[in-house]
Amino acid sequence: MHFTVVSSLDSQCREAAAERLGRTHDNSVVVLHDLLDGSLVLRRVFRDGRLFERETTLLEHGCLSCTVRLDVVPTAERLAACGFDHVVLGLPPGVATGMAVDELRRGLDGPVIIDNAVLALDPAEVDNQIWDRHTLFESGFTSMPSDERTSGEFLVGEFGQVDTVLMSPGLGSVLSGNPGEGSEPWLTGVELLGELAPHAHLVAPANTFRPGCFDPAEAAARNKPGVVRLPVSESQGAFTTVLHKAGRPLHPGRFRDALPHLASGTHWMRGRLWIASAPASRIAVQGIGPRVWLESTGTWLADKPESGPGTDVDAALDWHPSHGDRGTVLALTGYAQDIDAQEVRDLLDSCQLTEAEMEADFAVWEDPLDLSNSL
After folding, report:
1. Residue 266 CB partners (closer than 8 Å, separation 6+)
2. Are 88 and 209 within 8 A, CB to CB?
3. Which is deepest, 142, 143, 151, 367, by most CB within 10 Å?
4. Any bridge partners for residue 56, and if so which?
5. How would you list the strands of the sheet with 113-121, edge to edge?
6. Which stretches of the chain drop beneath a pLDDT of 50?
7. pTM for this one?
């Protein structure tokens, strides 16, 4: 069974994308799910642009994952049994593509072929959404008070998962009577998308859509914590991405002091750290708008017995004869006027251990970096 999965924060963008995607295959059906207040799921099914099913279901425990597992997956299975060749799944706003794909593969009996994973959005809103400090619930994107993700966290997670970004005016633009396609905010947003999702096909309303380009292995590689993917060429416009690598462990105290300066004004910071206070731990760092956090992702391959780069592409590319895959790789994306590449490099280099500090046993470091750091 062939599926195209559409995620979004904006129901207007999602419906425009789903309608368009329903025309990309013969014998297609479009399904839109919404989780409303009171654990009520609204399901609408369209064929050739016409609504032929509208149902509501009350969930005992209403949440986004329950909506997918208890309604989206059974509906997909039922439609497959009806003989449809292709189903477009318009997910409830805030539902991650990866979760939906996992539930489809887990819940359906037959083979699941994902033709495309699509994020639908209004590029004019992306800059503000990245910097929004409110949770998805506080901003009105979901009906779940327990959903503490920000819009920026949702978007960056989806950028790593999807192969296509379908752009159209959002609900706010339509309600204001100023769709804004081709406006300065729209064009600025498109440029930002080129830095945040360099692999994705950016498709405007008049552009051609490319079906069948979802690569699950590549999506999984992009989403591995600590992985850095960069635009093919350096941008000369309003936004830039700066990459820097440090071959020595970082002093935990100096890096903790430097972290707020590195993150300041950065739309997206990501990478992996080699910290002297936890030398065997591969620590991923991510900053999205106003939030920054660190997490341990396990042991460096170089610290595992009889291990090497193997099939880990990032480890193979950065493998060093003496310290293997250990090292710091950090990328920062933001307005070019806010990010000084040389300042970033100097600041990160100053966090590295000195020659004298390198000669000391790592066990002397008693200042571990707090992995729950949040700015």
Report:
1. 287, 332, 333, 334, 338, 339
2. no
3. 151
4. 42
5. 50-58, 40-47, 28-36, 86-90, 2-8, 113-121, 164-167, 201-203
6. 372-375
7. 0.92
